């Protein structure tokens, strides 16, 4: 597939101008230009379980309603996560595997080996450290001048967290988001604009990633007591030989890096943007910081950092009056389900004190539910607690730049200006 | 109405009345008992309403479905007595039930 600029955003038709059966929501330009919202609105209304027979990623089903998504997500016996959890198929020449893209039993043993790093007991030990780092990042920011929030805060904070979760050499930590960006840059996987890297360059950097982690892995022997991902995986009898299959090793590293990187990063940026778009909510937040624990899941719903997860049907299955056939590709559009008026009250409004804010799809449901959800929430909570102690407002002063992808709902640049607390 | 006591991990007890037919998850959420997140709203899909049922009550709280067993398999600090509160419907037989909450939902 080529993503050469065969079409431009301003030539994209509106969703209501097209015959329903030709509606293709996989075009990454839709997401980059925020045109996807109306496409999904039409599908939820007119064809909630929608078959698209031709797309850059081949034929696929779109599941767009909240309850249907939960039904698919929790039925892992019918809807397999193999061979991939993004809409595009893997590169047959460089096919990685990982537990997010595996069914039981492989999924179960690998996930369980990694989980303790991000479980609440371990996180409670990390909270003070994370707060100290958040304070340092915020105290170093320039007040009253324009800077990029994404680079200075969103990327820096999530990178520091990742470095901790991997017990990764501190001075090299920015290699982590680099590998994350490289790994998610394949146009055939999710329509990303990969102009910044060639296919050869991508493979080269990912091989370097394998080598770097192999060295780290070798240094964490049986007597290493760490609760970081590498120590846990390297010392668990079920996963200690993971390095023997380099592409499976890489797949799991990338899963853990991307899982902890893009998601929280874009929730940090997206929360600032949402509070600027809904100034009354910012007023509410300033008046009552106790609302932060409720605002955090609302930010994660609002942003839906990963737009979809893909499954493959292992047998024929009827859903919403449609027959999904064995072998069909099934895409659960979390970003659509999170705006489903049947499940969420006033879904198009960002409401930081909304009831049942935790009832959203962004973490997925079922056995593949996001295992880092508490780490992400904790970072957002601490960040906003500390922002409110320092600044009257984080003002967005320019248009955000968005990533071209149908998977990662990325904000790559967000110009802001800080206003100090009023004396 | 049957009364149910939820005991938080720090020892705080919440004795509430729950209508027959509601789930133990709904009983906790409706009565503002802290420590039950119930992210999925009762679909046995997130394991954030994890509780421990005292052994003497287990014969009355019914059996776990395959999906409940699977979800508990990934919950933190799950034990033989672990259940998902959304999967236990309150009956008259459960009057006086005592359940305990984990340190945190995950």
Concise summary:
Chain A has 423 residues and is of the alpha+beta class. Chain A contains 15 helices and twelve strands.
Can you walk me through this structure?
The complex is a heterodimer of chains A (423) and B (106). Chain A has helices at 28-32, 36-46, 66-73, 106-114, 120-139, 149-166, 175-183, 187-190, 199-218, 229-235, 246-277, 279-287, 292-303, 334-337, 373-390, and strands at residues 49-52, 60-63, 79-80, 147-148, 308-313, 317-319, 322-324, 329-333, 391-396, 401-402, 411-413, 415-420. Chain A has 423 residues and is of the alpha+beta class. Chain A has one domain (9-420): Cytochrome P450 (Cytochrome p450, Orthogonal Bundle). Chain A has a 5-stranded mixed β-sheet. Chain A has a 3-stranded antiparallel β-sheet with strand order 4-12-9. A two-stranded antiparallel ribbon of chain A has the order 6-7. In chain A, helix 7 (175-183) crosses helix 11, helix 9 (199-218) crosses helix 11 and helix 13 (292-303) packs across helix 15. The mean pLDDT of chain A is 94. Chain B is α+β, with helices and mostly antiparallel strands and 106 residues long. Chain B has a single domain (3-100), classed as Ubiquitin-like (UB roll) (Roll). Chain B contains 2 helices and 5 strands; from the N terminus they run E-E-H-E-H-E-E. The longest helix of chain B is centred in the middle third of the chain and has 8 residues, at 66-73. The model of chain B has no long low-confidence stretch (mean pLDDT 96). At the A-B interface, helix 4 of A face helix 2 of B.
Q: Characteristics of this structure?
A:
heterodimer; A: 423 residues; alpha+beta; Cytochrome p450; five-stranded mixed sheet; three-stranded antiparallel sheet; 44% helix; globular; B: 106 residues; Ubiquitin-like (UB roll)
Q: What value does the Rg of chain B take, in angstroms? A: 12 Å
* Major β-sheet strand ordering of chain A: 1-2-8-5-3
Report the CATH topology name of chain A: Cytochrome p450
Query: Average pLDDT across residues of chain B?
Result: 96
- Biggest sheet of chain A: strands, sense, closure? 5 strands, mixed
> How much of the residues of chain B is beta strand, in percent?
15-25%
- Counted beta strands of chain A: 12
Number of domains of chain B: 1
